[in-house]
Amino acid sequence: MIDFAGWIMPLQYKNGIISEVKSVRNSVGMFDVSHMGRIKFTKAKSLNILEKLISINIHKLKNGRAKYNLICNEAGKIIDDAIISNVNDENFYLVVNAINTQKIIDWFNKFGAKSNMSDITYDTSMIALQGPNSLKIINQFSKNSLILKKFGIIETDLFNIKCILSRTGYTGEDGVEIICKSNSATDLWNNLIDNNVTPCGLASRDVLRIEAGLPLYGNELTEQISPNESGLEKFVNTDSKIYLVKKRIRELKPKKRLLGIKLIEKGIPRKGQKILNPVNNKIIGEISSGTFSPTINSGIALGYLNSGYLINYKNIIVDIRGKNTKGKIIDIPFIKSKPLK
């Protein structure tokens, strides 16, 4: 039995980072992601505020569906990326990055959401079950056999614990994210361990999300980055008449672009290292996240390249602690998971 971590995800568990990555890619692993912020909105009274402040068309989000979206400031730059869920007839749920929870609450309060919004982060816990066998595990112990499409969300019982399940995740693999009451989380966590689900830590989660080409707030996303620089413009609906920053986003011209880099020499790229022009060694960009990928056995990175160099260069250099290390620009994700059924 393991006491539920509930807020502090360890870097790794006893089997190590590579073992955890392989568990998620090949079978199933789970992460304690209770640190993520969870905000509940009263549906009927929040539609106009949500339409004004999130980047998708909230009116098209049907019951039982969730969707990735961006929350941008008045300059059209990214305050946070989040998942908005239409859970039932009464409530929307917004899951935000932990570091931004209070900032997002303050932002929505600024536009009059206070009376229709509640922070349920401390009352609930969240476990991410990830990997191709995730739904198989869930259906062994769910009160009802679930047919849940990608980005579907449902209220159900799991191990006789009331849960909200969404077919979402942050690894590039199939999976579900589970929200339950905090006082039930330890039982849920231990029941999953007893059924051979591998607990995974922060380090393997970072490797998995980089392999999947998924951005991290504070690295790829900041309040200085626009949706069209981060490659996330497809998640912005600028047709709404009241979307706060639709005009500003349309006007923004990207000064840089997020891309994938695979090293073709030995090395591990890290955040902050410079991307160099291979002809004259001039700085043309910067690594935002980097790691060693055990799945493709190579150093990989996400990074921003200055717009003027996007067309001209496929081969680049990464300055790794003073050593010029050869790499190439490739499409992300680095790892393509199997299509969901």
Description:
This protein has 341 residues and is of the alpha+beta class. It has 2 domains: 17-211, Probable tRNA modification gtpase trme, domain 1 (Gyrase A, domain 2); 255-330, Aminomethyltransferase beta-barrel domains (Elongation Factor Tu (Ef-tu), domain 3, Beta Barrel), CATH 2.40.30.110. Helix content is 20%, strand content 32%. It has helices spanning 17-26, 43-53, 101-110, 134-141, 185-194, 202-211, 227-230, 246-251; strands at 29-32, 37-42, 65-72, 78-86, 91-96, 117-119, 124-130, 153-158, 161-166, 175-181, 198-199, 256-263, 274-276, 283-293, 298-306, 315-320, 323-330. Strands 8-9-10-7-1-11 form a 6-stranded mixed β-sheet. Strands 12-15-14-13-16-17 form a 6-stranded antiparallel beta barrel.
Topology:
Layout (H helix, E strand, L loop, with lengths): L16 H10 L2 E4 L4 E6 H11 L11 E8 L5 E9 L4 E6 L4 H10 L6 E3 L4 E7 L3 H8 L11 E6 L2 E6 L8 E7 L3 H10 L3 E2 L2 H10 L15 H4 L15 H6 L4 E8 L10 E3 L6 E11 L4 E9 L8 E6 L2 E8 L11
Parallel strand pairs: 1-11
Antiparallel strand pairs: 1-7, 2-5, 2-6, 3-4, 4-5, 7-10, 8-9, 9-10, 12-15, 12-17, 13-14, 13-16, 14-15, 16-17
Helix pairs in contact: 1-6
